[in-house]
Amino acid sequence: MSHSIYNQLLMISIQDQNVGSIFPVLLFFHGFLVENAWYTQLLEHVSSHVYIIVAPQEVNQAAFISEWLIKGGLSSEPKMPKNVQADLTKVAVSGHSRGGKTAFALALGCQEAEAPPASSLKFSAVLGIDPVAGSSPSNRTDPKILKYIPRSFDLSTMPIAVIGTGLGNQKKGITPPLAPNGVNHAEFWNESKPPCYYFLAKEYGHCDMFNEDGPPWFVIHKICQTGSGPRDLMRRSLGGIVVAFLEAYLGGNKQNLQGIVDESLEAPIAIHPIISLDDATC
Amino acid sequence: MSHSIYNQLLMISIQDQNVGSIFPVLLFFHGFLVENAWYTQLLEHVSSHVYIIVAPQEVNQAAFISEWLIKGGLSSEPKMPKNVQADLTKVAVSGHSRGGKTAFALALGCQEAEAPPASSLKFSAVLGIDPVAGSSPSNRTDPKILKYIPRSFDLSTMPIAVIGTGLGNQKKGITPPLAPNGVNHAEFWNESKPPCYYFLAKEYGHCDMFNEDGPPWFVIHKICQTGSGPRDLMRRSLGGIVVAFLEAYLGGNKQNLQGIVDESLEAPIAIHPIISLDDATC
User: Per UniProt, what is one GO molecular function of this protein (chains A, B) (predicted)?
Assistant: First the structure.
């Protein structure tokens, strides 16, 4: 089921046998000028693996959302199913496009000017889906988190996944690229410390993970380089990667993530390169 | 001794006991608008470890220099000491600034328009000192070798070293940065495949490896952010890293390179971060 609470999208897939359990949480921030509702098909995939998903519409208030979570916002939310609890010791933060950058900024503790004092909510993992930090290295959005020094994200051993799109750095018509070189997935990956994972959906574009019925596609096609393959395969592939990453670092089971990395589990679209840096060896 | 041949700087440090031996070669390309003669103090350091150094003045003719080498140019050069031979099975290619990019382009086989057909000279290693690929990701010099995809340099298992400067991405006065974010050492490193090594001289600038008596320093100080520490320590540190890398991959002795990586051998200036990616584990 999905509910809109305080401009947030709350997604919880509860099966009868799970009622009474405690579930990990995925916080997801949408991209610039887009709606959280455009991601429900992707997020339902993740939610169905029994994660509580909180996807606020207002990404500029990321720190307030984090504060709301730690203060028990979910448990006091009337639309939360009874006997369902959020496990606030297992919260991953994620996002797409500028929301991917917001996720990193929140994990790094780089707050907006009017944010509350750093909250005590600790994240267990961070995940950027085609994250974007501005329009060029010299024109980045605040807070500026990229330093252009490899492995500079000061996240200790927090696990990181970066998923890029191969067409995101291409322009469409007169529109500049939506995920330009120098501020996109490649640099986010470069600044990540192990343990970290990189996946490139090489034949898809920056908007190809939206719902079929989400955005006005006739507009998207004019401003965004899109892939020629079926979008449901893109969403399934991204969903699978997200779930495998969460399973590994929130659930303690690395089997599927390892399968994706060593390519024994094949995605339905071309994911290349896939790179993993383990903390023990790199 | 150092000689200028065909606009080239040839540096050979021969001790009596070495005459009659065969020596590995380091090809070095200078930066944009600067002279190869400004690097002699740095290059003498490397040369003293018994490498033949060829540092042409004309970097736009990199492929022709490579062709000249393979056709025995060095052995027919009248100023080469008698009984000294170049080992063309052990040639590393390197450079500073735009010359660093030239080194990568030559190793990658990305030729200038008027270059001879790809030569049969195979490089054993490539080394970029604060390499620069243009003024921004959207304004790169030809040939465009950066793809903004991690590990995209198609160099098989050729070992790579990238040395960056921490101040190279800062502007000085009204002059833009000489090694701008998005086209500098960080992205060259990001596109390198293992085995590869990254070193950042974090408190020095893009020009701090020039000779003391080389460039007009009063001009350099106006256009280039320079470090406050002694430049001879910068040259010694860079020279030491270059020699350790060549020893490892041209000489087969990884001891000093490993010492630098695990910081048991300490450089006289701050080198941080130091990152190594081994082909076996990463």
Answer: chlorophyllase activity
Closest by CA to B199, choosing from B107, B105, B265, B120, is B265
Question: Which DSSP letter does residue A175 get?
Answer: B
What's this model's pTM, rounded to 2 decimal places?
0.94
- Any residues with CB less than 8 A from the CB of B102 and at least 6 apart, and which? B29, B59, B62, B95
Find the angle CA(B8)-CA(B11)-CA(B13) to the nearest 5 degrees: 170
Sequence-distant (≥ 6) Cβ neighbours of residue B280 within 8 angstroms: none
Taking the alpha carbons of B59, B60, B65, B66 in that order, is the dihedral positive or negative? Answer: positive
Nearest-neighbour CA in chain B from A126: distance (Å):
19
Single-letter code of the amino acid located at A7: N
Q: What is the 3-state secondary structure (H, E, C) of A34-45?
A: CCHHHHHHHHHH
The dotted CATH code for A2-281 is: 3.40.50.1820
DSSP H or E stretch at residue A246: helix A231-249
Classified as helix, coil or strand, A176 is: coil
Tell me the domain boundaries of chain B. 2-281
- pLDDT tens-digit map of B188-243: 999 999 999 999 999 999 999 999 998 999 999 999 999 999 999 999 999 999 99
Q: Is the peptide bond before B177 cis (omega within 30 degrees of 0)?
A: no
Residues of B with CB under 8 A from a CB of A: 136-138, 146, 148-152, 164, 166, 169, 180-184, 186-187, 189-190, 198, 200, 273, 275, 277-278, 281-282
How does pLDDT run across A161-203, given as a tens digit for each residue? 999 999 999 999 899 999 999 999 999 999 999 999 999 999 9
Q: Which of B234, B237, B235, B219 is nearest to B33 (CA)?
A: B219
Which residue is catalytic, options B97, B119, B124, B237?
B97
Tell me what ipTM this predicted complex has: 0.92
H/E element holding A85? strand A85-96
Nearest CA-CA partner of A242 in A97, A151, A139, A125: A125
Please give the backbone phi and psi of residue A165, each rounded to the nearest 5 degrees, phi first.
Answer: -120, 140
Set of chain B residues whose Cβ sits within 8 Å of the Cβ of A184: 148
At position A261, the amino acid (one-letter code) is: V
| Cβ atoms of A130 and A206 closer than 8 Å | yes
Q: Which residues does B221 contact at the CB level (< 8 Å), separation at least 6?
A: B172
Exposed/middle/buried for residue A114 (C-beta within 10 Å: 0-12, 13-18, 19+)? exposed
d(CA A188, CA B41): 37
Q: Which of B187, B190, B282 sits opposite A281 (nearest CB)?
A: B282
